Amino acid sequence: MLEVRNVSKVYGEKAAQVVALNNVNLSIQKGEFAAITGPSGSGKSTLLNVIGGLDRLTSGEIILEGMRIDNLSESKLVAIRRKKIAYVFQQYHLLPSLTALENVLLPLTFCGAKDDCCHRAMQMLEKVGLAQRAGHKPSQLSGGEQQRVAIARALVNNCSIILADEPTGNLDQKTGAGIIALFEQLNEDGYTIAVVTHSPDIARRARRIVAMEDGRIINETVQN
Fold first, then answer.
1. Domains of the chain (ranges plus CATH)?
2. Which H helix or E strand runs over 63?
3. What's the pLDDT score for residue 165?
């Protein structure tokens, strides 16, 4: 489903160059749940960003569902992200003046039928267990609930792959475990998931651990 071929990412020039990714190769299959781990500065977040087109790579190729996407124009790349890739970040990025339902509706701004959009957004809130909180604003929600709203918003366009960068980083251990349990359920529902995490406990719940160091993949472990 997703292939990273000989990908490198270099920031800066000459003496100031920083090699964030160094000839990385990775395949993520449809329906997989992969955890990308490693110390700070190992390149894991950069890898996630180039996979999804948030950052341009220096060399190599990104293949998504058989199509090379790293060389697309920005407008075409945005269209691909909107239809196929859902992002979940450590920061929730919810608009404080909008309700949970309205935040989830944001990606559907250009939906032709308003009733259909609202129905779809409510379905996503139900999927993350927050239908009863649809009318609440972010300030009225816990951190875990805000992250669930952010996940519902990410999924509302029917994307097939979820890229999550430290999605539990702002949560306590118990709340974070609930978010990872939600990802496990989403994976069982057919979503392909790649999660960047520092947490060994979270990594152990994925089906595969991809360990990074100094911009390289140093080990891959498949788990039962």
1. 2-222 (3.40.50.300)
2. strand 59-64
3. 93
